[in-house]
Amino acid sequence: MGIMDDVTGAMRRGTSAAERTARSTKLKADLREVNKRRQNLAAQLGASLYDATREDAAFREGREELYRGIAQCDDERDQINRALQALQDAAAAEEAARQSFTCAVCGAQVRGGDLFCSGCGTPAEQARALRPSCATADAGLRCATCGAPLKADYAFCMECGTPVQLAPEADGSAADEPDGAWADEPAIAAPQCPMCGAAAEEGQAFCMQCGASLARSE
């Protein structure tokens, strides 16, 4: 029995005003649900027809404004998605930069995305795991550059990488070069890893992608 049959049967039996109101409310709710389903199906049909006919000149005839409007919406949607992706990439890069740390082996700064320390070639995870805790720093001993607590056996400040023995004195002088063999190495003519081809920066001693030495052969 259909909806109309239900209504006709109820009218023949005689119904109260309250019953008619309840029945009317139910029918209106059903109508809204049917319209919602139809609208959703029509949208899916329209989208599939648009994709199938947007290059068909004969089908586009008389509907040019509709096709142009949909194409414009698609372009705007793509631009918004690209802008959102750029914001997400920037946030990810900022988070990676915040995760940089000082190599516990040589004192060089290691960025969040680096696989190896650029100063000594130590794998980043190992350099991070070896990082001493400043909580055990000797009382009163601090880095002259950044003021971070130091232990007596530290060779480098674990916060800024300044060599402890070369930390700036009260007169403000500062050492420009860290101790170690890499400080005297000549500048790399071609900033590229000879093993994996990854881009390198001037002054790097090791590739941060594969760990290969970037020192030029004499």
Automatic annotation (TrEMBL):
Key words, A-Z: Coiled coil
Domain (DZANK-type) ranges: 143-211
Coiled coil (UniProt feature): 70-97
InterPro entries the UniProt entry points to: DZR
Region of interest called Disordered, as start-end residue ranges on this chain: 1-24
Record-given protein name: Zinc ribbon domain-containing protein
